[in-house]
Amino acid sequence: MKKAILILLPAFLSAAEIALSQSDKDFPVINLRVDGLKRMQQIDGIGVNANTRSWNGKELEPALQLLLDTMKANIWRVIVETVEKWEDVNDNSDPFSFNWKYYDSLYETAKFQRVWGMLSYLNEHGITKNLMINFMGYVPKWLGEKTITPGLEDEYVEMLVSFFYYAKNKRLLQFGLISPTNEADWRKEGPEMDAQHYAIVMKKLVERMASLGMGDVLYVGPDPADMKRGVSEYIPELMKDPVIMSRLAHIGVHSYAGYYAPVDSLLKNSAYPNSGFWVTEWNQWRNGLDDGIAGTYDYRFAAECVNHMFDLLQHGASALMVWEGYDSYYEHHAPSPFSYWGILAYNQQSKTYTPRKHLYAISQVSSFIIPGSWQIGKPVIADSIRVSAFFDPVSQQLNISGINMRKTAFKLTAVFANLPEIDHFEMYYTNETANFQRGIDGKLTRSRTTITIPADCIFTLKAVMSN
User: Fold this and answer.
1) Continuous H helices in 272-336
2) Where are the alpha helices (DSSP H) in 90-152?
3) CA quadruple 47, 409, 31, 380: dihedral positive or negative?
4) Could you tell me if 184 and 235 are in contact, meaning their C-beta atoms sit under 8 angstroms apart?
């Protein structure tokens, strides 16, 4: 075993603990003390939202491979829409008796062939337990369309469960998580339900899945559009029911402008203080992207997204899924022609996918964080600078990642304690013109290192341990 001299990790220092003095090169200096024993949350991973409607055999595979290999996306929130060509006509009048002649025919149609093809591809590439299936859009008209008609909840649950049963038992696909609806507090994104109605549907789904031998599947919710309403209404309502909470793997929320509602303190002060939360949709906001209007995908947009990533991690999020993996068409956004949120751009003429700056900016952080790592110490927030540190006790890999949104460089001086012995740090950074540029390494002297961080960049310092 290596000596546990350990070293690193930003102790999210208070403003008083951060020294912003001028160096001999006129760069500000930020001092960090990193203690490996001061653990915050364990990081489950960084992932993506991915639309099954885009699956077209080999055409989508290069895009999925970029997200798997470059971004190292290990959590996939896979979208299936409920708007068109699902259970348009009730299979029968009994919500507790599947009409398999009806469902067998339905689930071999082109809509679902795309779903099975994409899920199979992700399974083949190791995405199983962290494959989360999410349904988006209104429900069939006979179920209520904009909402689920009271009294028809069991019919709605039957529709969902028929999908899961077919996927697992007839297609032999693997998935570990279900996010049953999307943004129940908003328009068109899913059936509109208040907190009480959402909890009723969730409990029925949990119990029906268990009764059919699928009790090993876990759940993520409530995924509201408005994080504030999630904290004040939806999450407290779920917490009233121990059956739901026993199967709820993660609280799910959305954020498009950084953390703004106290999910972390709600959980810590609840009857479920060990619950963690996932941000199942996150990005910076840009108008028009849902409405078929392409944006300006420059470094500024990408850096704002990554700055929000650090904001959410520093408030306790244990996983984040970027919205979204690639440009695609959504039935529930109709009549807008396309969604242009993708970190991969889709060319409809050549039918090819190419990276936008977002891919490299996010990968600058996500490709270094090993799932299962701990965020150690308190992150740093000072003068347009954010810094977080992550340590994986299994591989003993230590990284310091951050973003410098200043127009000038700064010097990061880090002092380490209670970490494996470090030889030096390799620096990598991404900015407006560079992707994963190798910077100047940092040596250690007496458990201390000083590294100059370039202006206006996203950076990672990867520790190289002593032999």
Assistant:
1) 299-314
2) 100-106, 110-124
3) negative
4) no
Which residues are within 8 A (CB) of 102 and not within 5 positions of it... i.e. 6 or more apart? Answer: 91, 92
Shared domain for 380 and 331, answered yes or no, is: no
Give me the domain span that covers residue 31. 15-41+373-465
Helix (H, G, I), strand (E, B) or coil at 76: strand
Q: How far apart are CA 24 and CA 66, in angstroms?
A: 42
H or E segment and range at residue 218: strand 218-222
Distance CA 110, CA 15 (A): 57
Burial class (CB in 10 A: 0-12, 13-18, 19+), 88: exposed
Question: pLDDT, tens digit, for every residue of 106-151?
Answer: 999 999 999 999 999 999 999 999 999 999 999 999 999 999 999 9
The structural domain count of the chain equals: 2
Residue 391 and residue 374 in contact, taking contact as beta carbons nearer than 8 Å: yes
State pTM to two decimals.
Answer: 0.93
Judgement on whether residues 283 and 413 belong to the same structural domain of the protein: no
Same domain for 90 and 173: yes
The size of the chain, in residues, is 467
Q: Is residue 82 within 8 Å of residue 76, measured between CB atoms?
A: no
